Amino acid sequence: MLLALPANYSLLEVLYLFAGYYAGHVAVLFFTLGVYGGSLHRKSIRKGQIFISLFLAFLLGMQGSRGMLVIYGPLAAVEMVRCFHQVFLQRIKGSAIGKKSVRETDWKISVWVLAGCVVNYLGNCLPVSVSFGFSRNIRKGFSKLLETVIPDAAEAMGFGKVGTFGQICLMFLFINAGYVLVKVLYKILKRKEPEVLEWIYLVVCASPIMTVLMVSFTTVESTGRYYFTFLIMLSMAVVIVIKEKSLVTVKACIWIAVSYLAVANIVNLYLPMIGSKEPPESDFFMVADYLEENGYLLAYATFENANSMTVVSNGKVKVAPVASMERMDICKWLSSTKWYPPEISRDQVTAYLVTESEMPEFQLFLEGKDSLVEEAEQIGKFHIYVSDYNLVNFQDDSSVDLKS
Question: Is the entire prediction scored with pTM above 0.90?
Answer without folding.
Answer: no
